[in-house]
Amino acid sequence: MPGYRVIWFRVVRFPDYQVRLVVAIKDVKDLRVYQLALELLEVVYQTVYKIPHLKLRTQLTKSAEAIAPLISEGFSKRRNPKETARFYEMAMAESDEVLTHLEEAIILSKTLRTIPRVECEILLERYTTLSKQLNKLFSAWKKFSA
């Protein structure tokens, strides 16, 4: 594809054969992991105000807010593989931090009934998916840049 640099691909498996689907990524908005980070941020904003602990609420919000910009900055530095890897690693770290804060909120929900346990568990599952996608993005980037 002229004018495009393909940096991401997806393998689709069928029973008898394997097809490689090539997707051109022109902009950070084309990354599904970036889109998911922004979608989850909206859910975090809706859930976090039900948590009475200001410190936990602040840490959870800051961690969730940091993921999409780190992915974006890593994508913009793609001409420098070390910088890109560094930003993707920081995005993974922030995602793992969100997971930790959500687990803390779930533990607190046992004693404080104001914390929405079910919402935190759903967010925990979705951020686990996000962390896995970030890990795959990082692994694919390392293979591509090597």
Describe the protein in words:
Strands 1-2 form a two-stranded antiparallel ribbon. It is built from 4 helices and 2 strands. With about 150 residues, it is mainly alpha-helical. It has a single domain, classed as de novo design (two linked rop proteins), CATH 1.20.1440.60. Helix 3 runs antiparallel to helix 4. The longest helix has 29 residues, at about 80-110. It has helices at about 30-50, 55-75, 80-110, 115-145; strands at about 10-15, 20-25.
Task: Tell me the layout of helices and strands.
Layout lengths: L7 E6 L4 E6 L8 H17 L5 H23 L4 H29 L7 H29 L1
Antiparallel strand pairs: 1-2
Helix pairs in contact: 1-2, 1-4, 2-3, 3-4
Summarize it:
With 146 residues, this protein is mainly alpha-helical. Helix content is 67%, strand content 8%. The protein has a single domain, classed as de novo design (two linked rop proteins) (Up-down Bundle).
What are the salient characteristics of this protein?
146 residues; mainly alpha; de novo design (two linked rop proteins); two-stranded antiparallel sheet; 4 helices; 2 strands; elongated; disordered N terminus
The name of the CATH topology is de novo design (two linked rop proteins)
Residue share in helix: 55-70%
- Could you tell me the strand content as a percent range? 5-15%
Q: How many strand elements?
A: 2
First-last Cα distance: 22 Å
Radius of gyration: 17 Å
Q: What structural class do you assign from the helix and strand content?
A: mainly alpha
Overall pLDDT score:
85
Tell me the series of helices and strands, N- to C-terminal.
EEHHHH
What is the approximate shape?
elongated
Q: List the domain count as a whole number.
A: 1
